[in-house]
Protein 1
Amino acid sequence: LTGAQDGSVRMFEWTRPQQLVCFRQAGNARVTRMYFNSQGNKCGVADGEGFLSIWQVNQTTSNPKPYLSWQCHSKTTSDFAFITSSSLVATSGQSNDNRNVCLWDTLVSSGNSLIHAFTCHDHGATVLQYAPKHQLLISGGRKGCIYIFDIRQRQILYTFQAHESAVKALALDPSEDYFVTGSAE
């Protein structure tokens, strides 16, 4: 799966030089993040205008429409994570009201899909990592701060200053004992 600054999203197969599917044409907002869900049957694309779009992967058409597309953040959606069976999605980004980390239910109508919004990261959240064993979300922000959220209780557990500049990467070890942050500095 490839995404570009021009907004295009294409899927390829290892043994074929031509694309299998073009999910988005050039001319859309720049792609900020893309993932497959754990089952591999859906892919999601976040973009610079605050949208998250999700497609079924096993499409028979060459230019399929997303089965779900909504604006998660008013400025940008920088990252997202499929939670559990992928009907629950967490997003990070930047919104005018500082609701910069959100939980969404993809099985309800778009008007009711926001489950919870965390007010955090004054200048926006840049990255997001889901820890399934502990049911935690870890987010990094533009000002170097890290927030850890309990998604069952929908509350902020910890916050600390990890870097002086924007957090650009988060990685979680498989046992969920440690996580690592990387910054723009």
Protein 2
Amino acid sequence: CLEHDPSSPFPRRHRQYLKSIAKFKEVIPIENSELLSKIHQTYRVQYIQDVVLPTPAVFEENMLSTLSSFIFFNKVEIVSLIQEDERFLSELFHQLSGTDDDIPVERRRDLVLFLKEFCTFSQTLQPTSREAFFK
């Protein structure tokens, strides 16, 4: 139903995009299945909110705030789960601090982009938790 748009001559292909076009890239292998599931769930819900649903003026404001809250709390949980995984963070910083010859430029770029996204997610934390995060 969300792939049908009467104003467009072609149906949208959201399921195809999520199943085959969008690719999940693990810069450091994630062993925690709960964390991995939370990341995928958050991506899908964010996609639905940003791409699939109509503009806020057309859609129920209450539904959008519910989705926003869901995404917010998922991001908080993702940050917490990553912070708790000492192996993951130590491996990330170990690879980032390696010499230029050790790590290809593309890999280093992916590591930095992950760290940037992780820090962006941390903005959802409460001020005291955010301070602990940066420490």
Protein 3
Amino acid sequence: SHDMCTCDRNFQGADCSLRTCPFGKAHVDTPRGDLDASLTIGDHNDIILAGSTLYPYGITEGFPLMSDTAGTVIANTAHDYMECSNKGLCDRINGLCECLPGYDGAACQRASCPSKANSGTPGSGQGERSNTNFKVFNANSAFHGRAAEVVQRDQCSGHGTCMTIEQLAFLDHGNTYDLWDKDVPMGCKCDPGYTGP
């Protein structure tokens, strides 16, 4: 009478019929708060829940432990690994992230490059799926089938190369960009004779 399912990896729910989506570093993050109702917020090493299907290694109430390149521990940090990088919703049927407009990748882990040809990317201003129509979040339209139906094509309007901020910084006299989001923001390196985002 007290039996329950122990789900296989990447499955969850009472009957293990729901999928878990890919995780990535969260673009935006907050501490989870007082999960155990103890009236205190634990720190990065106080595991509150361990062994769940979504967080098999546990979950904490405070920000995750992070350190800088010198090894100094930084307090009140964010950007923990979250499902769909906190920039999309998980489709529990097929285990795919449906990303907010302007984000792509299996875990919505990076920003999309602008494109005039693809009205689903930011800055296009064309069609009903353009970024201008998504300034106010609408769960019924913004997430409807985006992950499966809208692919990124003709990025940079076909007149440039989509690159990470780390790559763009290096092309600017060998500058170094090595923060947590070095592979997240994307931008266009325009071909000669072309300008614009």
